[in-house]
Automatic annotation (TrEMBL):
<keyword id="KW-0547">Nucleotide-binding</keyword>
<keyword id="KW-0812">Transmembrane</keyword>
<dbReference type="Pfam" id="PF01453">
    <property type="entry name" value="B_lectin"/>
</dbReference>
<dbReference type="InterPro" id="IPR036426">
    <property type="entry name" value="Bulb-type_lectin_dom_sf"/>
</dbReference>
<dbReference type="InterPro" id="IPR011009">
    <property type="entry name" value="Kinase-like_dom_sf"/>
</dbReference>
<dbReference type="InterPro" id="IPR000719">
    <property type="entry name" value="Prot_kinase_dom"/>
</dbReference>
<dbReference type="Pfam" id="PF08276">
    <property type="entry name" value="PAN_2"/>
</dbReference>
<keyword id="KW-1003">Cell membrane</keyword>
<keyword id="KW-0808">Transferase</keyword>
<dbReference type="InterPro" id="IPR001480">
    <property type="entry name" value="Bulb-type_lectin_dom"/>
</dbReference>
<keyword id="KW-0067">ATP-binding</keyword>
<dbReference type="GO" id="GO:0005886">
    <property type="term" value="C:plasma membrane"/>
</dbReference>
<protein>
    <recommendedName>
        <fullName>Receptor-like serine/threonine-protein kinase</fullName>
        <ecNumber>2.7.11.1</ecNumber>
    </recommendedName>
</protein>
<dbReference type="GO" id="GO:0005524">
    <property type="term" value="F:ATP binding"/>
</dbReference>
<comment type="similarity">
    <text>Belongs to the protein kinase superfamily. Ser/Thr protein kinase family.</text>
</comment>
<keyword id="KW-0732">Signal</keyword>
<dbReference type="GO" id="GO:0048544">
    <property type="term" value="P:recognition of pollen"/>
</dbReference>
Length: 824
């Protein structure tokens, strides 16, 4: 049985092979041993971890290590990583002085060095994954004689301290293996540098690779998305004795670890998903290009959404403009105006928001000083270049000051901190400066003219400029210490790729709930429980990442109870995804075109849905900040929430996809046959009125329970519009009503809806009402105009007129969004 398991595992996971069967013993007493040849292992009391000999990958070498007992080979710790054993002669013993000694053919390959010799010791593998040497009668963690947690390999487990024990000068850091075959420590590590204001780095050898940044009371400055979450709780402890990062798991049934990945040069947090028997990536560092240490040089600022990403801080300019313009940013930036420090303290500060604070190598810190005193102190020392609160928790407290160049600043993807940067007085108020220049010019020209007049003139300019300054919301405000972050940055709804991958189970087919014209849609659940729908945009977008994000930012601001809420977006290389709130009842087409589910939607519910869609469209067309023409309104794009309220989805997607943004003429037709207005389908002309046309079709579909496309009537070749139009002309409009609709009390209301529907589908856009008049018509009893002939009312209309532009087979049952490029 054991042999069978063993061979399965080897076949299944090639990472680590050669695990042997185990006996459930968790500890070794003095003079006992654990030998590779006997195949014995230690198993922690609760069965979480196992310690023994293993062979990583194809290396053929033997190592003493610890791995998860219940999870396919995931090694979390290695003892003799720099001294492999070449055969199965390895033996681990606890010798008489209490030290662990690992031998190969009686040659010592690895051992511990207890500070004091101990007589009565035991080495025990704990359920936390910690392998400890302790006095037999002493279970207090504070007095362990030795513990593996003090000597991490490539994995940080819950409860491990990452950082310094200042008393013993023990520096606990995590270091990646060389490769999955070779646990020799590579140069890639994660460690704490003990600056005045200590900060974590990812290092490659002695080179800084990514600065994680100092702890600011809430998170590490460079990792603002490290937030309270349902998986783990984290903390940073800084006392006179020790400085470290630690995390714990919220729920003992969740398994998570942090691991340094050598091949990807990433620090990855994994979460074990038992249902899929897989480690899923939860978070990774570095996150993006801007996380590269000091990418933009001294006094540069990395802004991932800008192009190029490196920008000089305000008040600075490229030191070597030629190099800077060819994307060699290493020279960084220098001040536009030298500081005036010793000349009467004319300097001041500008405040930049939403940043990762600069490297803290040359800093001074006081955890109790107020920000106002911090400012004064910085001003009084000519080498102080910037200051801010050392603790941003609550109202903010403490003082940290920077000396010399400001290194490795970036704009944070979310949140971020304020930084007050020292500036010469002349930089603090450019406007006042330009006023001066103007005044001087005027003086030279108008030298002879009355000084009184001139003063009056300047005064006016000054006042006008002051007024403008107040309303302009400038980037920076002189000596303003109370301004919040700019609204736009807070609104950028970026969601981490790994978060989405976990939420939707790595794009698994089980999570796929549909395939729209723009790509597949997946259902998922975020870690905090919110259900989401993720639309993965496929095909080539004409937009760059920045434009895409800007569009998403705009669209995300559209909020109306009849619009599906766009929660955010995610980009990963060429992948673009939109994340929406999840609608449990699916789309309207599943109801109205289904005999059984159709009964759920009685007439009053259908009317409620029609009105909701109309109001949502009014908002898109005229009430929102953007004028959005949907261009692909159809039953499958109307989603229903848990109370069967309609919500329009996919609005703005043409915009996000890089389509034309204003009313007019497009070469890129986006839409669905059967819903497209004639002028749009044929000539590519779109406007709010083409949406009104689609709404009219939708209205007729909701009433009739029949699809516009694929409508079939035994007696004639008309489509749904033509059929409705004929019935209307013959005064038999009510025959259009869906047979699954029973007990309609208000037939005149239904008749009115059909009437409105026909007004909406009139052939000429100028004859169609606007959506706001549609809302009025639906909600009142006023007289309505007689509809003129609709567009596209025989089946052949569309295909005949448009066949020469149709590059794809049209399947009459499949309703897909089409995108015709160059449809003219
Ligand atoms: C390990 O322990 C076994 C049984 O106690 C003993 O026979 C063997 O000699 C020991 N091996 C070493 C290398 O100490
Ligand atoms: C136990 O092992 C340690 C480390 O190898 C060594 O320094 C010490 O001398 C050993 N003690 C005995 C009694 O062998
Ligand atoms: C260990 O000892 C055995 C027997 O003496 C020998 O065959 C083997 O080569 C030795 N292994 C190593 C790595 O020295
Ligand atoms: C996890 O722990 C954090 C910190 O204690 C807490 O804020 C959060 O609510 C916890 N989450 C769950 C799901 O228990
Ligand atoms: C821990 O997770 C399990 C399984 O997901 C769940 O049943 C349990 O309620 C959770 N416990 C807590 C305290 O959140
Ligand atoms: C101070 O101002 C004077 C005159 O404006 C100038 O010559 C001198 O260089 C300035 N000193 C410093 C340190 O900026
Ligand atoms: C300014 O601060 C630096 C760093 O703390 C210190 O070395 C220097 O003496 C200070 N200068 C003055 C004038 O206080
Ligand atoms: C940061 O400030 C908060 C709230 O003012 C306080 O509770 C916390 O202890 C402070 N943290 C540090 C490290 O000083």
């Amino acid at each position: 049985m054991d042999t069978l398991c063993f061979s399965n595992i080897v076949v299944y996971v090639l990472l680590v092979a050669g695990f042997k069967a185990s006996m459930a013993v968790s500890s070794l007493r003095q003079s006992q041993n654990l030998s590779d040849a006997s195949g014995t292992t230690l198993v922690s009391q609760g069965g979480n971890f196992e310690l023994g000999f293993f062979t990583p990958g194809n290396s053929g070498k033997r190592y003493l290590g610890i791995w998860y007992k219940k999870i396919p080979q995931t090694v979390v710790w290695v003892a003799n990583n720099i001294n492999p054993i070449y055969d199965s002669s390895g033996v681990l013993t606890v010798n008489t002085t209490g030290n662990l000694v690992l031998t190969q053919n009686n040659t010592v390959v690895w051992y511990t060095s207890l500070t004091a010799s101990a007589q009565n010791t035991v080495a025990e593998l704990l359920d936390s994954g910690n392998f400890v040497v302790r006095d037999v009668d002493e279970a207090n963690p504070e007095v362990y004689l030795w513990q593996s947690f003090d000597f991490p390999s490539d994995t940080l487990l819950p409860g491990m301290k990452l950082g310094w024990d200042l008393k013993t000068r023990l520096n606990r850091k995590v270091t990646a293996w060389n490769s999955p075959d070779d646990p020799t420590p590579s140069g890639f590590s994660w460690e704490l540098l003990l600056h005045t204001y200590p900060e974590f780095f990812l290092m490659k050898g002695s080179d800084k690779f990514m600065r994680i940044g100092p702890w600011n009371g809430l998170y590490f400055s460079g990792v603002p998305d490290l937030k309270p979450n349902p998986i783990y709780d984290f903390n940073f402890i800084s006392t006179s004795d020790e400085v470290y990062y630690i995390y714990s798991l919220n729920n003992t049934s969740v398994i998570s670890r942090l691991m340094m990945n050598p091949t990807k040069s990433q620090d990855i947090r994994y979460v074990w998903v038992e249902a899929y028997k897989r480690w899923e990536i939860y978070q990774t560092l570095p996150k993006d290009y801007c996380d590269n240490y000091n990418l933009c040089g001294p006094n540069g600022n990395c802004i991932i959404s800008d192009s190029p990403v490196c920008q000089c801080l305000k008040g600075f300019q490229p030191k070597i403009p030629q190099a800077w313009n060819t994307m060699d940013w290493s020279g960084g930036c220098v001040r536009n105006e030298a500081l005036n420090c010793n000349n009467g303290s004319k300097d001041g500060f500008i405040r930049l928001s939403g940043l990762k604070v600069p490297e803290t190598k040359h800093t001074w810190i006081d955890q109790t000083m107020s920000l106002a005193r911090c400012r004064d102190k910085c001003l009084s020392n000519c080498s102080c270049m910037a200051y801010t609160s050392s603790n941003i928790s609550g109202a903010g407290s403490g003082c940290v000051m920077w000396f010399g160049d400001l290194i490795d600043i970036r704009k944070s993807a979310s949140d971020g901190q304020d930084l007050f940067i020292r500036m010469a007085a002349s930089e603090l108020d450019e406007e006042r400066g330009s006023k001066k220049k103007l005044a001087i010019t005027i003086v030279s020209i108008l030298g002879a003219i009355s000084v009184v007049l001139l003063l009056g003139f300047c005064c006016c300019i000054y006042q006008a400029q002051r007024k403008r300054k107040k309303t302009d919301k400038p980037d920076t405000i002189e000596e303003d210490q109370n301004r919040g972050e700019s609204e736009d940055d807070l609104d950028l709804p970026l969601i981490d790729f790994s978060t989405i991958v976990i939420a939707i189970n790595n794009f698994s087919s089980e999570n796929k709930i549909g395939e729209g014209g723009f790509g597949p849609v997946y259902r998922g659940k975020l870690a905090h429980g919110q259900e989401i729908a993720v639309k993965r945009l496929s095909g080539s977008s004409r937009q760059g990442i920045t434009e895409f994000k800007n569009e998403v930012k705009l669209i995300a601001k559209l909020q109306h109870r009849n619009l599906v809420k766009l929660l955010g977006c995610c980009t990963q290389r060429d992948d673009r995804m939109l994340v929406y709130e999840y609608m449990p009842n699916g789309s309207l087409d599943c109801f109205i075109f289904d005999d059984t589910k159709g009964k759920v939607l009685n007439w009053s519910r259908r009317f409620h849905i029609v009105c909701g869609i109309a109001r949502g469209l009014v908002y898109l067309h005229q009430d929102s900040r953007l004028r959005i023409i949907h261009r692909d309104l159809k039953a499958s794009n109307i989603l229903l929430d848990d109370k069967l309220n309609p919500k329009i989805s996919d609005f703005g997607i043409a915009r996000i996809f890089g389509g034309d943004q204003t009313e007019g003429n497009t070469k890129r037709v986006v839409g669905t046959y059967g819903y497209m207005a004639p002028e749009y389908a044929i000539d590519g002309l779109f406007s709010v009125k083409s949406d009104v046309f689609s709404f009219g079709i939708l209205l007729l579909e909701i009433i009739s329970g029949k699809r516009s496309r694929g409508f079939y009537h035994p007696n004639h070749s008309l489509n749904l519009i033509g059929h409705a139009w004929n019935l209307w002309k013959e005064g038999r409009a009510l025959e259009l009503i869906d047979s699954s609709l029973e007990e309609i009390c208000n037939l005149s209301k239904v008749r009115r809806c059909i009437h409105v529907g026909l007004l909406c589908v009139q052939h000429y856009p100028e004859d169609r009402p606007t959506m706001s008049s549609v809302v009025l018509m639906l909600g009142s009893e006023t007289e309505l105009a007689q509809p003129k002939a609709p567009g596209f009312y025989t089946k052949n209309d569309f295909t005949e007129t448009n066949s020469y532009t149709t590059p794809m087979e049209i399947n009459s049952t499949n309703e897909v969004t089409i995108t015709l490029l160059e449809a003219r």
